[in-house]
Amino acid sequence: MHREEVNDETAVPAGDVAAGFQALIDSDGRVEPRDAMPEAYRKSLIRQIAQHAHSEIIGMQPEANWISRAPSLRRKAILMAKVQDEAGHGLYLYAAAETLGADRADLLDMLHNGRQKYSSIFNYPTLTWADMGAIGWLVDGAAIVNQVPLCRCSYGPYARAMTRICKEESFHQRQGFEILNTLSHGTKAQHAMAQDAVNRWWWPSLMMFGPPDDASPNSAQSMAWGIKRFSNDDLRQRFIDMTVPQSEALGLTLPDPELAWNDERGHYDHGDIDFTELFEVILGNGPCNKQRMEKRRGAHEEGAWVREAASAYAAKRRTRQTAAGSAA
Ligand SMILES: [Fe+2]
Ligand SMILES: [Fe+2]
What we know:
Bound molecules: fe (ii) ion
Number of helices: 14
Helix content: 55-70%
């Protein structure tokens, strides 16, 4: 065989790429970075993984807001660990996006100039300590329901990153539940604070599953590619079914008078979700969009010297290793 035939991977006809790729997806196999894949699949994954990574690091902000005001040393240590976990999730995910040929610096630029989004849930303010409980219980809880199926998604590096992330998210959810449980069974004022936080976070957490199925244009393709396994509405229903009994255990109510068990469906019925609010927040008109982006851009600028130092150190090590290699 001629060398060119071995090395020229780009010469694989597009039809062969599509057929080989589809066979892999149909057999529920994993696509790995070196496998040929349709360009649209690669681009769609980069967009999704980047948006996910951005959400992890922006999501650090509303909770970091309470680290210095946590009510005890124990709570402070737990909250710090949780916020650090979110930074780690961002790291796994940016690394997963890089396996698709994306450049991390470009992805961050797109976050900073508004060309890529992050989850709208992080554009809501954290007004009281009870919000730490409601975020852990509801926001991390919704994230788990969304993300567990991604552990089986067709792209290997993303699926493996999600397996690690989901383990940590379940700790986050439990710590949120525990905060609310303590407040709910504490003083009258603490119970009221917990109830108020749940009232504010319930509807936004339902919107984390995205628009309803009939208004979700990318879902069908994403499901055909084995990236998404369940529809937005199915996942939302799963979250509601899981959360209602937990709210009863907490002694807190959910702010939806229409929530009721439906024996026939085997699910909870719920009231209409006001998606106009979600679309407003996506457009940048949520309560904290501006503040979150300003803080993120500021953190990026302040961290420039760290990135420069790390690159200089890596370059120095490479030079030393090459010198040692050629001397040996
Ligand atoms: Fe996370
Ligand atoms: Fe989390």
